[in-house]
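#struct-pred

JT: dropping the chains for the assembly here, can someone run the whole complex?
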Amino acid sequence: MSGTLLGVIAIAGLFALLILRTPVAFAMLIVGFFGTWMLRGLNSAGAVLITETYSTVSNDSLIVVPMFILLGNVASRAGFSRGLYDAAYAWVGRFRGGLASASVLGCAAFSAVSGSSVATALTIGKVALPEMKRLGYSSGLATGAVAAGGTLGFLIPPSTGFVLYAILTEESIGRLFMAGILPGLLLTVLFMVTIWLIAVRDPRAGPRGEAMSWRARLKASSSSAPLLAVIVLSIGGIYAGVFTPVEASAIGAALVVLIAFGMRAIGPRGLWDAVLETVKTSAMLYMIMVGANVLNPFLAMTDLPRALGSTLTGFGLGSYGTLVLILLTYVVLGMFLDGLAMLVLTVPMFFPVVTGLGFDPIWFGVVVVIVIEMGMITPPVGLNVFVVKTAAQDVPMATIFRGVTPFLLAMLVGLALIILVPQIALLLPNSMFG
Amino acid sequence: MADKATLALATLAGIGLLILVGLVAVGVVLRYVFARPIVGINEIVQMVSVAVVMLALPWCTSQGAHVRADVLDEAIGPYGRLLGDILSRALSIAVLAILTQRAWAKMLDTLAYGDASNMLGLPIWPLHALLALGVAVTIPILALQILSALADHFKVLK
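RK: done, full complex below.
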């Protein structure tokens, strides 16, 4: 049996295991281990297994994952999301669809302490959805704005997606974090424009909130100042070259714990729950990385990535045509697979193809993360939609999916802009690292 | 019993994480304010990272926190779900058993050769021991989940 054929069979086996409810991490471990066994024997398979597991769990760069998760968990439990939302509302609430725009802004700000779309949508959704319901917002606009805003958590640093991408491709975590900032802000603006357009077309869908005086705005903003200071210090510290990403994550987590305790926003029990939640999520993410690191050497041995590259370039579509084909694959996979799973499964296959076509590896990371974000709000999986549903149980799923459709279009516009103008992603990392 | 044991290990993992946060944050302050960086901090981070992840793994597994693609759960029916739950855990147990055995062997090797980290000279064998421990404790958790899946399935059929 040729290596490539074995690779194709392995991928089919992987999908079979995923359909049979196997956790993504274990599915990759199983296929990677048994595949290597078939190609190189049990001894090699065992050697790959222990070497890759050890090197992943002892990778000191990866510690940013639990630290940033802790930062987000503590901020969430301490109720800091309320302050972010109130501050955003004070500034944009008086516009058409102002509450929905405030939700998106709140999501964008919370994304700067959280690497997860789900956590962002859930945290802001709990605060924003009841407010929008109270003011008579249409359920489609309200839930759509929160589900779409939540996706910013995966793009605006610190992003779990970028950390995994960096480890898989050996790119710089700091550079990727910086590359996510402007595209994240671009999507935030596009989401707010979308909300405004919806509210102009149907003023009852998103009525204006009350206008606030400058004094009231500054007062509302001051309540979110401590968390904003943490964001500026940790993310700004990476940009200024003062901190490494690991240091920024530790400083951010330590400060947010101190602030939460100082403001009596969290007690020892709350902190401990946040810590336990953090180590649980971290173990899950590390195991996904272990699975990917066992599977990917096997796939490389089968020569499948090279064969895939030859096939894709053999269509003669040119570099942008091939890129679009790859992105369409992501859109299809996004309908069935979780974002993290999709990332670790596809990047090792597509990354050599895309960089071989001359595209920038950091820019591709941003593009992939945005396409994966789109998968988080498209049916039938649409993880963020399910999360929003838990906070808005009276809203039918179909209404939420209808509500996110305009935001999906906004993401497509954002993606097209980033593809056409790569500097949107590359300006900050290039200005920082040269 | 299993929950208590995994929670106890996760508690140690949590303590490890808090130590790391404090250590790295203090290291930054010492470097910038007192010009006295903590020597070999990366090695400490590496070592405690292993403890954080491997001691939390059994808790993560027992809580069912591993990400799954569950979109086709309904489509595969109760027998498909039972087959999947048993097959996936049985195969996982097989791979984890080999990983445990390899980690244990590696621990014995590094202990025998006295392998140590470059800067601080910290022994390497405890890391392999932690790896073996975390994976080994996860195996019975998965086995219990197979039994639980069987019990649930037949309870539903009754």
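JT: nice. Residues 58 and 199 of chain A are 51 Å apart (CA to CA). DSSP finds 20 helices and no strands in chain A.
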